[in-house]
Design goal:
alpha+beta; 6-stranded antiparallel sheet; 680 residues; 19 helices
Length: 680
């Protein structure tokens, strides 16, 4: 194949791969994937565009994005900024997914170029095809995660190293050194695993030929420059060049065996567990996530065997990459977390995005797979020249057709299954974000539920703040709503709610909505509630309490239909038809009214009204109360609450809240609809 035809074909293949990435990213992941790290990198990309590496919000505990470290009044991400800088290219021009397309194109071009450099043009072209058709490439490149970007830097390094080795051109050496340095800055362990075979090769070359010191020295210098940059970045953020931000976030989330911990998830990562987990990941990679499954692996194996027989040191580099990536990942417990459960296949993030920690294997398997396929074809042609050409050609064509059908079927099944899984998640996301899509919010403050704790963008990574918290919408968690409301006095306030537990993979939530929240104040605030109790309720207990004082029971057996609460600076007077009690409130508290239904065999269900209160002098301030449904008495903490279907509601709360300085405001169970659901 001549050079012009090779470049044309490789360019067309790369463009087709980029188009595939665009379609998958836009149609399958319009609200991002089930991996919430995407929001971290996109938040970081917007920060870099405004020349910031930290956030300085007024409310750091209420506006802390997922995987950001709190350092006094500043927040910084646990991840290095290199992948985010690549994503910033698309974000900066208003087309974020353009970055994914460019990365995908570059990956395919470089894999083709490496195949051509090590073997020939036809091998390079076919290697690009094999990589572009691999489900791992298709899905992992279509999301804002660091694996394809870091692999791109590794590929630039590999190609530049090979070119510098063959041409002694110092420019290639400089490019290669800077690329692996940036890869280290991006994901240190990933870069080290990829570079180890090249380092060994470089030492071997230097031992044989001291004149190679010049270009090898330039590569080493570029790599060390990247390391120095990473250490300097660490010094700025963590105060210690040897403490990376991800270590500052979770000191026990590291490499090696023993006790590992990330937030509330921890386990004893033993060698046995490591080998089992990685074997599972590699099995999934070989059977599903590389093009053709085991058929593709077979041809890659043929290419590897031939390479070992030939003992070509440059080609053996790719064998080394396979070995270092496979062995090195055993020491990383992230591969265990990736599969979700060893007992249940098809679980975990690997089922949605593939074994992305092994993304660098695509280089070796694609190139060796292409080389192995051409070996088989060439050997078959040799056979046909010696015997009955027509018969053997027919048999060979049939054989190749069968292999192609098998390989195509395996890949098609993986792609189709993965599309279906992610599409189901996207359908849930579409329902969840529908209120934001169907209306235009301007100068708004939205209080988000703490589904997984006091984080933004976990899970709501589609709802992100601008770096300066001055966008059309500002998002905070609902952990301290009065603090949020008082910090943004001129914004219209909404509360975001959804129906059902947060389980996008299971088709939930089913509905969502925005509830208008009003500010209420006065020397006296009156709360009148009306309880509606289902005939199915066996026993109902109504309690009123605060976060600083014990809960008092208003009624244990009777079923009060009304409950009045009068709140002043002196406390809250709680009254129903037969009882009257005072509850101290202090300067700041959260008053709750819970109506719990014991349904024996069906467990306990609780409807809870939450009313945040602050007192300044003689003035009491609050906002429209919100109502949640919980599956247990102690589960109404902001992370386990949701709104059930009306058929599952056994006790409901509705009423009116009145402030002497602001008037009346009716409240009740939020209506979840596409647009605003103000109930006043």
């Amino acid at each position: 194949m001549d050079t012009r035809r090779y470049r044309t074909l490789l360019g067309l293949i790369a463009l087709l791969g980029g188009l595939t990435v665009w379609v998958v990213a836009s149609e399958i992941f319009p609200y991002h994937s089930i991996n919430h790290d995407e929001g971290v990198y996109l938040q970081q990309a917007t920060m870099l565009l405004e020349r910031n590496i930290t956030l300085t919000p007024d409310l750091p505990t209420l506006t802390r994005p997922w995987f950001f470290v709190v350092d006094g009044s500043q927040l910084f991400p646990k991840y290095a900024p290199v992948p985010a800088a690549m994503f910033a290219i698309g974000v900066g021009v208003g087309v974020p997914r353009l970055s994914l397309v460019l990365i995908g194109i570059a990956v395919l071009v470089l894999i083709g170029a490496i195949g051509s450099e090590l073997f020939d043009h036809r091998t390079g072209v076919l290697a690009a095809v094999l990589c572009g058709c691999s489900p791992l490439f298709i899905f992992s490149t279509s999301v804002f995660l660091p694996y394809a970007p870091t692999s791109l830097l590794n590929l630039i390094f590999a190609y530049s190293y090979l070119r510098a080795n063959s041409t002694r051109n110092n420019y290639w050496a400089i490019i290669g050194g800077l690329a692996i340095g940036l890869a280290f800055f991006s994901r240190p362990y990933t870069a080290v695993l990829f570079a180890v075979p090249f380092v060994i090769h470089a030492v071997w070359i230097l031992f044989r030929d001291r004149s190679s010191l010049s270009w090898l020295g330039l590569i080493a210098g570029g790599g060390l420059a990247g390391v120095a940059t990473a250490l300097a970045y660490n010094s700025v953020l963590t105060g210690d060049p040897l403490v990376f931000p991800f270590e500052a976030f979770a000191p026990e989330d590291g490499l090696g065996f023993g006790q590992q911990k990330l937030l509330n998830h921890e386990l004893e990562y033993t060698p046995s567990l490591a080998v089992t987990a990685n074997a599972t990941v590699l099995e999934s990679f070989g059977t599903s996530w590389f093009v053709g499954g085991l058929v593709g692996i077979f041809f890659a194996g043929v290419g590897m065997v031939e390479t070992v027989i030939e003992r070509n040191d440059r080609r053996l580099l790719l064998m080394g990459v396979c070995g270092s990536v496979v062995c090195g990942n055993v020491f990383f417990w992230g591969n265990y977390n990736l599969i979700g459960s060893l007992a249940q296949r098809g679980d975990g993030l690997i089922a949605y995005l593939g074994p992305y920690y092994h993304f660098d294997l695509l280089l070796s398997l694609s190139v060796f797979g292409a080389w192995g396929l051409w070996i088989v074809v060439d050997r078959w042609r040799t056979v046909t020249d010696r015997i009955d050409r027509q018969s053997v050609t027919i048999l060979g064509s049939i054989g190749l057709l069968v292999l192609a059908l098998c390989a195509g079927s395996i890949t098609a099944v993986t792609v189709s299954t993965t599309v279906d899984r992610n599409a189901k998640v996207t359908d849930s996301y579409e329902r969840a974000y529908e209120p934001f899509e169907e209306r235009s919010l301007d100068n708004a403050l939205v209080l988000l539920p703490r589904t997984y704790g006091d984080w933004l963008n976990h899970p709501f990574q589609y709802l992100r703040n601008t770096p300066n918290f001055d966008g059309a919408v500002v998002y905070t968690t609902d952990g301290a709503p009065l603090q949020s409301v008082s910090s943004f006095p001129n914004r219209t306030v909404y509360r975001y709610r959804y129906r059902g537990p947060w389980n996008p993979a299971g088709g939930s939530p089913t509905e969502s909505g925005l509830q208008r929240v009003d500010r209420i104040r006065g020397e006296t605030i009156s709360l009148e509630t009306d309880l509606k109790i289902s005939d199915e309720a066996d026993d109902v207990t109504v309690r009123v309490g605060t976060d600083t004082n014990r809960t008092i029971a208003v009624s244990d057996s009777g079923l009060p239909r009304t409950l009045s609460v009068s709140i002043t600076a002196d406390g809250a007077m709680v009254q129903n038809a037969t009882d009257r009690r005072r509850l101290p409130i202090g300067n700041s508290t959260v008053l709750t009214i819970t109506a719990s239904v014991d349904r024996s065999e069906n467990g306990t269900h609780t409807t809870q009204l939450t009313l945040p209160i602050s007192v300044s002098g003689s003035t009491v301030r609050t906002i429209t109360p919100w109502i949640d449904f919980c599956t247990g008495v102690s589960d109404c903490d902001g992370s386990s609450t949701y709104l059930p279907p009306r058929s599952a509601e056994f006790v409901s709360l509705n009423g009116t809240i009145t402030g002497t300085a602001t008037g009346s405001n009716r409240f009740g169970r939020p209506r979840l609809a596409k647009n605003e659901t103000r109930e006043s």
